[in-house]
Design a protein that fits this description.
Blueprint lengths: L1 E3 L4 E3 L15 E5 L1 E3 L3 E5 L5 E11 L2 E7 L8 E4 L4 E7 L4 E6 L7 H4 L25 E4 L11 H9 L3 E7 L22 E5 L1 H12 L4 E4 L1 H12 L10 E5 L14 E5 L6 H10 L1 H13 L10 E4 L1
Helix pairs in contact: 5-6
Length: 311
């Protein structure tokens, strides 16, 4: 679906034809994060089975994780099935814990863990690469930046031949992405930080594009968050600065976008921070109308669903 904001027009198309809506000099900003097989199963000393879902690496072999199981309190040691032992170091809110692998586990994860698919997907993923973008290189996410799943190497090559450029940024996606906003006032919703990076090279590409009067098009809400976080660090309006570190930027309707001219995104869950970000960019009423049209026309929603270009 193509949503033309200035014309109040919704158009049906196919993603392979996205080049029809781009012009030479436009810049697609892609999030090169790679999903870790973050769902692990372990046994307590009593033999009881528990689940660990890695959320965020804090330091070498130390992670913030969600735990499924009773009695997982600081000091307990559990053993990953066919893997190393893990100590529960600290209890956070709810089922969050700080855990530490008792031997280096990073290289083992690929063989130990399962892909942490969103909770609304119940089918086992036979090919884990289906939940990775073709350009993913930087391991660290608990969920995929799903707008990027629509790209193929052939499509990217065709767009580059057309004169469209790519800039790579990184934002490691946390599962808070899927947490519904339950507060009456969305500004009271606590959005957890995610680690992001814009390199010197990426910042230069973005700033050159803006200076030339061409469009910066974010592929996914994660790229939007990264770009706008980098813009907040810049002392020059309409430019970004290189950044590397956590961002807590929460984009709600009324937010003045500084860098993003257009975005590619999937269709999101209601009451999510993601649909609020999209509504901030395109306008709440336009987004709701577009979603209603998508339902009527049989578009597929969520992670493995269809895409929307908002320009």
């Amino acid at each position: 679906m193509v949503l033309h904001r200035d014309q109040d027009l919704v158009e049906d198309s196919r993603f392979e034809l996205i080049g029809n809506y781009l012009t030479p000099g436009d810049l697609l900003v892609i999030n090169q994060t790679r999903v870790i097989p973050a769902r692990l199963f372990a046994r307590k000393p009593t033999g009881g089975r528990v689940e660990l879902l890695l959320l965020k690496r804090l330091e070498q072999d130390v992670w913030e994780a969600l735990v499924g199981g009773k009695g997982l309190n600081p000091g307990m040691v559990v053993k990953i099935e066919n893997g190393p032992k893990v100590e529960i170091r600290e209890k956070l809110d709810g089922s969050r814990r700080i855990i530490q692998f008792m031997e280096s586990a990073e290289e083992m994860l690929a063989g130990l863990g399962e892909m942490p698919l969103p909770p609304y997907i119940h089918t086992h993923l036979q090919n884990p690469e289906r939940y990775q973008t073709v350009y993913s290189t930087q391991t660290g996410s608990a969920a995929a930046p799903t707008a990027g799943l629509h790209f193929t190497p052939e499509l990217m090559a065709n767009l580059e031949a057309q004169g469209v450029h790519f800039a790579r940024v990184t934002l490691h996606v946390g599962l808070d992405t899927f947490m519904p906003v339950k507060e009456d006032d969305p500004e009271e919703h606590i959005i957890h930080s995610e680690w992001c990076e814009v390199t010197d090279e990426a910042a230069m590409l973005i700033n050159v594009t803006k200076a030339a009067g061409k469009r910066v098009i974010a592929v996914g809400t994660t790229s939007v968050r990264t770009l706008e976080s980098a813009a907040l660090e810049s002392k020059v309006a309409g430019q970004v600065s290189p950044i590397s570190g956590p961002t807590k930027l929460f984009i709600l309707p009324g937010y003045p976008f500084k860098i993003v001219d257009a975005m590619i995104t999937n269709f999101h869950l209601p009451q999510s921070s993601l649909i609020m970000l999209v509504s901030a960019f395109a306008g709440r009423e336009k987004v709701l109308a577009a979603y209603q049209t998508a339902i009527e026309r049989g578009y597929r929603f969520y992670s493995f669903g269809d895409a929307m270009l908002i320009e």
